[in-house]
Every structure is written in C-alpha cells, then in structure tokens.
Amino acid sequence: MEDPSRKEEPARVLNVLEALKQASHELQAHPGSNSDDSAIKALLELETESETILSQDPHLSTLSEHLSNLKTLVQTLQRSRGRSLRSFLTRRVSTHSISRVAGSIESEIQAWIDRESTENLTKALQDPFNNEDELMKLLTQFEDRLLQGFNRELQDLVLRAKVFSSLETILCDSNCSKRIREQSAYAVAALIRFNKDVFVGQVLMGPTIHALLTVASTHSVKVLCALIKSIKSPLVDEIESNGEIPKIISFLDVKDLQMKMVAMDCILEIGYFGRKEAIEAMLEQGLVKKLVELQRSELGGDLIEIGRLNEEEEENVSVGGGVMETKRESRQRRFLESHPFASCVAKFAVQLEVGEGLRQREKRAFKQEILMRVREASVSDAEAATIVAEVLWGSSP
C-alpha cells in the first residue's frame, strides 16, 4: 500500500517554494530594508526550513546555493549600519546583490514549478478520463501561466513534452467531456498568444479549426474568434479552404442567444481579415439575408434613430469606475446591450470597408453586392432604405 506521506510531499515542497517565491519577489522591490523586514525574515526562516527539502531534489541545488548567498549578503548588510563612506558603499553593493539574488531565487522557483506543472499536465492528458476535475485544474493553471508572458525555459518544456499535440488530441476526442475539450481549446489559444511564431503552424496544419467547430459551443467559437484575431488572414484562408464557412454561418440560426452573439463576433472578424474567397463564401451562404432578419428581430434595430434622439444631451454621467460618458452615449450603450444585433448589416459592411483582407476595388464591389442583397431581403422599402443608409454611411450614429 502506498505511503500517504509520499503523495503529500510534492504539495509540501510546493507550499514552501511558493512562500519562498513570494518573499523573494517582495525583497526585490525593497532590497534595502532592515533585518526585521518581513520578506527578509521569511526568506531566512524558510532557508532553514527548506534545507532538507532542497537537498532531496537535484533541480533545487542551485536554489539552495542562492539562499545561502542571500543569508551571507543579509549578514553583510546588517554589519554595515555606520555612517562612514565605506559603510555606505557596502550597503549599496549589498542592496544591489540582494535584489539580484532574490530575482534569481524567484526564477529558480518558477522554473521548478513549471517543470512539475508541465510533467503533471502531460501525465493527466495521457489519461483524460481518470480524474476530470484534476485535469481541469491543471489546464486552467497552465493557461494562466502562459498568459503571464513569454518564457524561453517554459517554451522548451512545452515543446519537449509535446503539450500542443496532447491538447489537440483531447480537443478532437469526442469521447472526452465538453468542458475538458473547451478548456483544452483555451490552452491552445493561450499557446498562440504565448508565442505565435512557434505554435501557429501547428494550428494551421492540424485539425484544431475543425475540432473547435465540431465542439460547437460558445466557448469553442470564442476560441476560434480569438485565434482569428491572433493569426489573421492565414487562419481565415484555412477556414475557407476547409469548407468551414457554412458551419460558422449556420450558428446564426441556433436558438441560443450567446451562441448567436459569438458567431456574429466570429463573422465580423472573418469580414475584417478575410480575403475575397472567404467573403464570397459568406455571401453565398445567405449571410446578408440572415443579418437583415436579425436586425429586424426584437434583438436588432438600427442606430440611426438612436443617434437622432436627444442629441443635445451632452452632459456627463458616471458609469462606474470613474468613467464618464454623455447621456447620449449612455443611451446608446444601454440600447446595444439589449439589442446585440442592432445595425449588424452595416457593422459587417464596415468590417469589410476598414479590414485588411480586401483590395480597394474588391471592397467597392462587395459593398454594392451587399446593398443589392439588402434590397432583396428587406420586407419593405422603409426597411431597405434604413439599412442601405447605414451601409452607405457606416453604423455609427
């Protein structure tokens, strides 16, 4: 039978190292504090407590040396409290050295945590059905760590462990629960933000896009939208060449409002970055007709009329957090919150107009085609006139 203490040991090591990391972080900000400073006291107390723990892990030998050096530097700083030039210079040098060593301690601890976390995640991904709650926790922690910014050592760990491939396997496995697949998708998006140059090729060449659309949830489409923003036209090209445009457009027909809204966001991003073939594919799927219907619905409307109301009301009103806006802006914001598809035809047209994917002559041609399709889809001359006016002049009141 396995000794329970063996399971508790990694958690105990992590707790000690997290405390060391926090104390060293605080010490970097205030390296010249006196010996009674809480950060210094915590580090010195933990240095004594952690001797046994550090000696058991070869990866922590450097950390042990840094802690020993820190103790010596603090003692030197304590002895240099006089007012002589020598004491002043000694304090300056010691303070700088303490800050540097504290930074090294924090880096060493983070490297250890990254190694342990990556190893644990890799093992959990190999058997996603064993402990779903633990895997969710590890995936969330991994995403949070990536979003802290680029780190070369962490990238090397991720590449050696082939984490991206494991995440993609989970994402494509229909036997895995939806929440595990969604969280894996968020981790993939975090990897792209972490270092687009390294991981974008794996997204473009693999089944990630198709898998996200197969999951067909608000979370998976949000991830797709985020990937489009990060990778831009090359990802839209891949979506179009794989024949995925109709699937995205079809999400506008679902009953779930949140799904409709994230689908709309995705369509607007495709409109901004998409080249001619992608825009043509959307229009061929009857996108303009669907947008006209959404704008006609109770969740739609147009911003032209809102812009005409109370234009003289320009006095500022507080909207929280110290932010100020005019009454007109407040009215418009509240309207948009309750009418997410207001002026959606014009919003799409504006994305094409200001976007990066089309040439100027293509933009002009698509604008005319949108106007033609608006007239065909409208149920009255008044509706057509309003939408056409918004498309011609933009959706802003």
From TrEMBL:
It comes from the Eukaryota. InterPro entries: ARM-like, ARM-type_fold. Gene3D superfamilies: Leucine-rich Repeat Variant (1.25.10.10). This is Armadillo-like helical.
